[in-house]
Amino acid sequence: MLSLVTLFIGAVLAWLAYRLMRTNKMFELSEKLPGPPCLPLLGNTRDIGALKMNVNNRGKSGLDRIGGRVVLDFLQSLVRLRNKFGSIFRLWLGSELFIFVSDPKYVETILSSSKLLDKGNNYKFLHRWLGAGLLTSSGPTWRKHRKIISPTFHFKILEGCMDVFNANSLKMVQKLQEQESDEEFNINPYVTLCALDIICETAMGVNINAQDGGSADFVQATREMGEAITKRTFQPWLQPDLIFCLSDNGRRQKKSIGILHEMTDKIIKQRKEELADQEKRDMEDQLKQSEDDDDDLCIKKRRAFLDMMLEASKYDEVMSIAELREEVHTFMFEDRVVEELESIFGDSDRDATYRDIQEMKYLELVVKESQRMFPSLPMYVRNIKEDIEMGQKFAMLEMKTVVSKVLRSYKLLPGSTTNKMEELVYNLVLKNVNGARVRLVPRRA
């Protein structure tokens, strides 16, 4: 018994020594970078308003959400520190060292590196849901999944998804007809459910009919997962696994994960059985045929991304059911735009084709500029384990198809709260707490 206690104490001391040495080294290196002075234990939490966070704010949806002021205070603190210390500065949040980089050329160096792939520690909160998928994995696992998944984004395969984009966009426009009045409304739920239908049908090959109220438990579980992960990110006392699992948030997350995994596991199993009976459509032959036969990849039949992963996994590096599930989960200037759409479609109500999408040059600029000005993710986090010296197509096709379908049917007038950005909510992605409020004016009587 004494030897076990001695061994345990020795292990703890060794771990503390390692942490101390690592922290001392990082502290010495961090002192070479500009940044505010830090306090023992607390670091620079006072400089970013972390001690004033009202994490128990409840939003209008009835679900626990991070208060709007919290996110805005946090981002404004970073902007203020950048203005004071420059495009590269350091912050200590407790014992964790963060180097904030906003210069585009340095950001490109990090994000384009084939070595700096380790995600930040906060990504671990996604592991119970997404596991080690492309979003959260690093190193060999990331390369393995990337190798298998990359072929599924071949432009011919994306072209085969146009029918899904068009069908769900049309359904959303039909739903919007209910809002044809002078009253403003929040368009976000309509766009969210449309995007969910699209990603489920293209990624998993099934239509969950979220826009018609289908798979309500799956939709609700997805929302609650975002809520739980966001709260855990902003509440340090919930970050240890043991404490989180015993909390109400942990129990709700466990229930949501069960619903999400049950559905995706069922779909994966069903797809594997179907593919086993389709030898004539063997993916190995399709992937290895000559470039002259490349068009056959999607002209004969649109294949779900899940089917592609299953077949690629069959003949390459094997991906387990859990790994497949992780990747499935891991996949949201008006007059000038309308003029461009009219030049392409005229008075026709026909569906958009892949060629039409390629012609939407100005709409693509609008989408890209909107993403630049209002990014859904305000920052990326990478865990750098070596010294460095510093001196996506599917989403675009989907967005251009959906936006073009809406703008061909309606003029979107801004609501009274459109410019009120003082209240933001962070639920995996950054949003206005009031949503995107608009009024619809039909273009054709």
From TrEMBL:
GO molecular function, one term: monooxygenase activity
Predominant location category: endoplasmic reticulum
Compositionally biased residues, Basic and acidic residues: 274-290
Coiled-coil spans in chain: none
Annotated membrane topology: Peripheral membrane protein
Span list, region Disordered: 274-293
Compartment(s) where it occurs, according to its Swiss-Prot or TrEMBL record: Endoplasmic reticulum membrane; Microsome membrane
Entry keywords, A to Z: Endoplasmic reticulum, Heme, Iron, Membrane, Metal-binding, Microsome, Monooxygenase, Oxidoreductase
Keyword Iron attached: yes
Cofactor section: heme
Family the UniProt entry places it in: Belongs to the cytochrome P450 family.
Protein name as it appears in the record: Cytochrome P450
Species per Swiss-Prot/TrEMBL record: Timema douglasi (Walking stick)
